[in-house]
Amino acid sequence: MIDVSGTLVLITGANGGLGRHVTNTFLEAGATVAGASRSIRNEDFPHARFRAFPAELSSSSAAQALVAAVTARLGRIDALVHLVGGFAGGSSIAETDDVVLEEMLGVNLRPAFYMAKAVLPGMREAGAGRIVMIGTRAALEPQAGTAAYAASKAALLALVRSIALEYKPYGITANAIVPGTIDTPANRAAMPRADFSTWVDPGRIAEVALWLVSDAAAAVTGAWIPVYGRNA
Ligand SMILES: NC(=O)c1ccc[n+]([C@@H]2O[C@H](COP(=O)([O-])OP(=O)(O)OC[C@H]3O[C@@H](n4cnc5c(N)ncnc54)[C@H](OP(=O)(O)O)[C@@H]3O)[C@@H](O)[C@H]2O)c1
After folding, report:
1. Enclosing domain of residue 193
2. Would you say residue 1 lies in a domain?
3. Which of 25, 63, 71, 65 is CA-nearest to residue 45?
4. DSSP 201
5. Does the residue 3 lie in any domain?
6. Is residue 61 part of a domain?
7. pLDDT band, very low/low/confident/very high, at 231 (cuts 50, 70, 90)
8. CA distance 51 to 46
9. Residues enclosing ligand 1, CB less than 6 A?
10. Which residues of 94-133 are buried (b: 16+ CB within 10 A; e: fewer)?
11. How close is the Cα of 15 to the center of ligand 1, in Å?
12. What distance in Å separates the CA atoms of residue 71 and residue 50, rounded to the nearest whole number?
């Protein structure tokens, strides 16, 4: 396994369906992990190198406060792995309530923008940093009935490319992992008759995130990396 011992990684959405795998993968690889979400607790990951930072990341001030708290407690942030996101779909644009659009932008785009804005000054000062975000296949290949979700995630992909361009002179990389449907308990419950074998193993996505944070990926920035498993 890739070794990232000594790396301080802030993982948002650390206790989600994907986040649990990403958090455990980074802990197994030697990282110190600051895990954030609204409900997260230290007991979620009983490990000496894990610290929980409960945070509601729907405002810029909350993101700034989270980054300040992690930096004060753990010294610095070498990498941000931003997993916060959500899904809504099943309606045409005409039938989609405006509230749903706001919810999708509010969970998929704004926290990503706020978190990047909060961590980048410290990374620039350090002359190094890694940002990994999670898009979705639907952002690159939209399907009918998911306009608000797909558009919010497409905006996130544009954000990642913008960060990469602006910060490439400073040793900071920004990349997006673009998964197909992930094999999470929530998806199995929502789609019990689906063929789970065609879904992406969250452990595989965690390994890509780990690689993007590792030295091996130092020259990779601005990438949107498809992780579609057997559905490629
Ligand atoms: N599942 C899929 O098939 C799939 C496919 C493609 C892409 N993705 C993307 O992959 C990422 C992870 O998906 P998932 O299935 O693991 O989702 P999930 O289980 O719903 O996890 C979402 C995480 O974000 C946290 N969160 C949500 N809103 C937040 C807020 N306002 N402030 C702080 N934390 C918040 C949640 O924790 P709390 O509730 O404790 O806050 C949870 O840890 C998302 O970005 C998703 O869009 C998922």
Report:
1. 8-231
2. no
3. 25
4. P
5. no
6. yes
7. confident
8. 9
9. 13, 15-19, 37-40, 55-58, 83-85, 107, 111, 134, 136, 179, 181-182, 184, 186-187
10. eebeeebbebbbebbbbbbbbbbebbbebbbeeeebbbbb
11. 8
12. 14
The pick from 182, 198, 231 for probing ligand 1's pocket by mutation, whose C-beta has the most ligand atoms within 8 angstroms, reads: 182
pLDDT of residue 194: 95
pLDDT at 102 exceeding the cut of 90: yes
DSSP secondary-structure letter at 182?
B
One-letter amino acid of 201: D
Q: Are 231 and 225 in contact (CB under 8 A)?
A: no
Per-residue pLDDT at 1 exceeds 90: no
Sign of the torsion angle spanned by Cα atoms 141, 188, 223, 62: positive
Q: If we measure between CA atoms, which residue out of 37, 27, 40, 35 comes closest to residue 51?
A: 35
Say how far apart CA 190 and CA 148 lie, in whole Å: 19
The total number of structural domains in the chain stands at 1
Complete edge-to-edge strand list for the sheet that includes strand 8-12: 50-54, 32-37, 8-12, 79-82, 129-134, 172-179, 224-227
> What pLDDT shows up at residue 128?
98
Place of tokens 């650390």: 14
Structure tokens at 33: 């992990």
